[in-house]
Design brief:
Largest sheet: 7 strands, mixed
Number of helices: 0
Distance between the termini: 39 Å
Order of helices and strands: EEEEEEEEEEE
Number of strands: 11
Radius of gyration: 14 Å
Shape: globular
Helix content: under 10%
Structural class: mainly beta
Strand content: over 45%
């Protein structure tokens, strides 16, 4: 089990940028695929981006491709989400989550039910 704490959310104007951080506890961070999810008011939670334990594979939802970048620093037990060209449609609570890495495959985890540890969330609000 890993404890996750997000930071970096806030209010930004459309077209602006934010960088979210998620700090993980423990010494086995490198054994987890990490994902960033978001949930807007009245909508279902969705996977925004994910990154394999090694950083060698990433996934992005179509809605954020070319604008968001997920990265990780295993030495710092931290995963990041750089968000550029933000629009009001990006307004949501953003959560980071951890999934035990499956070392038999090369891609990262994209199935929500495989993510077993979650942060408390950080609010991102984009004004028009």
């Amino acid at each position: 089990q890993v404890q996750l704490v997000e930071s970096g959310g806030g209010l930004v104007q459309a077209g602006g940028s934010l960088r979210l951080s998620c700090a993980a506890s423990g010494h086995t961070f490198y054994m987890y695929d990490m994902g960033w999810f978001r949930q807007a008011l009245g909508k279902e939670r969705e996977l925004v981006a994910a990154i394999r334990w090694s950083g060698g594979s990433t996934y992005y939802a179509d809605s954020v491709k070319g604008r968001f970048t997920i990265s990780r620093d295993n030495a710092k037990n931290t995963v990041y989400l750089q968000m550029n060209s933000l629009t009001p449609e990006d307004t949501a609570v953003y959560y980071c989550a951890a999934a035990s890495a499956n070392f038999d495959r090369v891609d990262t985890t994209t199935t929500e039910h495989e993510y077993h540890d979650w942060g408390q969330g950080t609010q991102v609000t984009v004004s028009s």
